[in-house]
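Exercise: predict the fold of this chain.
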Amino acid sequence: MNAALLAYRKLAKLFKNWGLIMNLYDPCVWNKDVNCEQLTIMFHIDDLLMAHVQDSVITEFIRKLDREYTTHDPLTVTRGLLHEYLGQSLDFSYKGQCAMSQYDFIKKLWLELPETLKGPYKCTPAPEYLFKISLDSPELRVQKKDQYHKTTAKILWLSWRTRPDTQIATRFHCARVKKPTEEDWEKLRHLLGYIWKTRFLPLIMGMDDSGNVVIYVDGAHAVHSDGKGHSGLFVTMDTGALINMSKKLGVNTVSSTETEIVSTGERFPKCTWFRYFRGAQGSALKEDILMQDNQSCILLQKNYP
């Protein structure tokens, strides 16, 4: 922890000396206007991603970093439209879009699985009875329980990065890791069969010229065994999910309308942060659009008499 903090402070000090300004809503994103265009540098520990319209500007800042950090080992630099960053493949081949995938991670995950977890190919991440729990299903033995927990943790990382389509099933398994049953094991096999079948499916993100941000929030009432609902968030600027979340509600609700209201309330802070972040990046802000499919909820959220 101390080493990471010291590394951050050193890098932040360098950026300040070079005239970059930190985004107030993300301390790992820094910006500077160079030759009338914005240079953006984002980083995670010692992995940096730079963006500018001119190659010469990127080269200049790479040289600056090289002078500061190559006392013992040279920097590893990748330039172009294809990148490997934090275990993800980033493809900028299509203008205005970024395709993200983790095929190598999925392949390694699949090859390390025991044969009993390698389910047949499936067309959906979960069966239709995902949230139905049988009280008669026996609890897993210690070895299978550990395998269940470890596999769920790996899929959770995958779902948050490039596979939002698996989030609802993954969230269910996260809630079952303490006392998983044979039924849960079969549901996990179902999810893994789907992931392996769709292993080449990328997450494609893009935006149009309008700059509109559309927010989709929905809630499913009392679907969990403890009576709590489940909510989902999908934020887009034309193509793909810029922000996505599938999560169990923190409180019990008494109606589907209340579930929708609580779902919006619990998920909206992330949308508010995203708006402030875009503003700090210099984006021209428009009114974000919240999509809602519950008429009672629409009336309450608009505060109609």
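Check your answer against the key: The mean pLDDT is 91.
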